[in-house]
Design goal:
It contains 15 helices and 18 strands. By secondary structure, the chain is α+β, with helices and mostly antiparallel strands. The strands form four sheets. It has a seven-stranded antiparallel sheet, sandwiched between helices. The chain has a five-stranded antiparallel sheet with strand order 5-6-10-8-9. A four-stranded mixed sheet has the order 1-2-4-3. The relative contact order is 0.12. The structure holds flavin-adenine dinucleotide.
């Protein structure tokens, strides 16, 4: 597809729309906005624009639509699939200045937010009020607009679900500049096709999210974390299934192999409670009375002991829980700090988790690459981190990486899983879409894209192969 360029005239028109101080074209800014957290080389845009209001977003899109200039919406650029890379140049539309929490509505238990609000800011604000916004992806500086557009998951998926389950309403701007309102402060809605659901997880390819209404829940008053060492992954996975059979639904069940525990210890410069076993579960339980939490801890402890756990370390104070969570949440950052890495985030049925972990390790051995499987054991969304050997040439690494990612994704699909559980397809995983959904659904998706974006300007090169 041939696109229009961002000429001097276009820059002047953009300045008229958002103000000269919100249009950037210095090499540093273009480089910065050409990247996210995926290992892709940068794709610098021709200009970066930071609107502060919906009418400005609408103005930018109307101009881009008329001139057929590609536009890439960007939040915090923490995505791991290259979704925020301006593959075709054009305009990087950064939503980071639209960052107000407009309202916390305690009567309806809903928050109204702009897309640039960081998820950690919403967590902090709601938790002070005894409320919880349950989605909790590992990267807390991700924006809510980015979370909605990737349907972000995180550690609370088992009990609470994912971002999709908390989006009640959206204001969004279509590629031609038209503003639409979807859903609202309503709990039920059976009124036509649910376009709201279509926009969630659409990775900025259908419309730009400019405001969202998010559901909140009361925050349970008591919680605790358990750190449980096992001698094998299979034992740990069987323990997870048994906890649920005994009617304990933890808010988090995270899996870390010993390799990950050791790397985290090196990164943080402090010890985790144990680092001498093959596999670890971090289990989070919560409730509205101490007795409820106590009962869950005891049941989880019993189940784990019955399945070969050696011990169970309890963190039941704010400080100890924070320390343990920090160990889990910095895991990807820790690997990135020492090596070049990439990641696959398939989601398989929970019962197939041990098969995935063992299969992924065999794939690593076959390719002679270190593969560290970790992640959200409670919901089957596992992250396979692939580590570049220090001495390996870059060209060799890139070739091997492509081959091993293929194998790790096909393994997930063969176990009844999906290509990406939470990071999205973006640019790097889009070739796998057809493998999961087949040609009929890909054609339906192309037709949907065309209905929203007939000129193909919004985040081209993403999701669809
Ligand atoms: C250390 C680390 C840990 C992570 N852990 C998790 C995890 O546990 N769970 C998880 O789900 N993800 C995780 N991620 C990935 C990432 O944080 C999420 O994908 C997050 O949702 C991206 O938000 P963002 O604001 O950075 O979006 P960006 O990276 O800027 O954009 C992501 C996509 O959303 C689109 N987009 C952004 N804003 C808008 C908007 N307003 N309107 C329309 N489209 C928009 C972009 O075009 C792009 O396609 C992790 C990342 C890192 C680096």
């Amino acid at each position: 597809m041939s696109y229009g360029r961002v000429t001097g005239e276009v820059k002047r028109l953009l300045q008229d729309i958002v103000g000269p101080e919100n249009v950037y074209d210095s090499p540093e800014m273009l480089e910065k906005h050409g990247l996210d957290e995926s290992p892709l080389p940068p794709h610098p845009p021709e200009v970066v624009v930071k609107p502060r209001a919906t009418r400005e977003v609408s103005g930018v899109l109307r101009l881009a639509y008329e001139r057929r200039i590609p536009v890439t919406p960007q939040g915090s650029r923490t995505g791991l699939s290259g979704g925020a890379h301006p593959i075709y140049g054009g305009i990087a539309l950064s939503l980071e200045e639209m960052n107000r929490i407009v309202e916390i509505d305690e009567d309806n238990l809903m928050a109204v937010v702009e897309p640039g609000v960081l998820i950690m800011e919403l967590h902090e604000k709601t938790e002070k009020l005894g409320l919880l916004y349950p989605p909790d992806p590992g990267e807390e500086s991700g924006s809510l607009g980015g979370n909605i557009s990737t349907n972000a998951g995180g550690v609370r998926g088992l009990k609470y679900g994912v971002t999709r389950d908390y989006v009640q309403g959206l204001e969004a701007v279509l590629p031609n500049g038209e503003v639409i309102q979807l859903g609202g402060k309503i709990v039920k809605n059976s009124t036509g096709y649910e376009l709201l659901d279509l926009l969630i997880g659409s990775e900025g390819t259908l419309a730009v999210v400019t405001q969202a209404i998010l559901k909140l829940v009361p925050k349970p008053q008591y919680s605790a974390l358990l750190y449980i060492p096992f001698n094998s992954t299979r034992d740990a996975a069987r323990a997870v299934a048994e906890m649920i059979r005994r009617r304990v639904v933890p808010f988090a069940v995270e899996y870390m192999p010993r390799d990950a525990v050791e790397v985290v210890e090196r990164y943080l410069g402090r010890r985790m409670p144990d680092d001498e076993h093959e596999a670890y579960l971090i289990v989070g339980v919560e409730g509205n009375s101490e007795a409820e939490v106590e009962w869950q801890m005891e049941t989880v402890g019993e189940v784990c002991m019955e399945h070969g756990a050696e011990d169970a370390y309890v963190a039941d104070t704010e400080a100890r829980m924070r320390e343990l969570w920090e160990g889990r949440k910095c895991l990807f950052e820790a690997y990135k700090a020492f090596w070049e890495v990439d990641e696959v985030d398939v989601c398989v049925p929970r019962s197939r988790l041990p098969d995935y972990v063992e299969g992924a390790e065999r794939i690593g051995e076959r390719h002679r690459l270190r593969v560290v499987v970790n992640g959200h054991a409670g919901d089957g969304n596992v992250h396979a981190i692939i580590v570049k050997p220090e001495e390996m040439e870059r060209e060799t690494w890139l070739g091997k990486l492509e081959a091993i990612i293929d194998d790790l994704i096909y393994l997930g699909l063969s176990l009844g899983g999906t290509v990406s559980g939470e990071h999205g397809l973006g640019y790097t995983k889009r070739k796998y879409l057809i493998e999961k959904v087949g040609p009929v659904q890909v054609e339906l998706m192309r037709a949907i894209k065309k209905a929203f974006d007939p000129r193909g300007i919004l985040n081209p090169g993403k999701i669809l192969p």
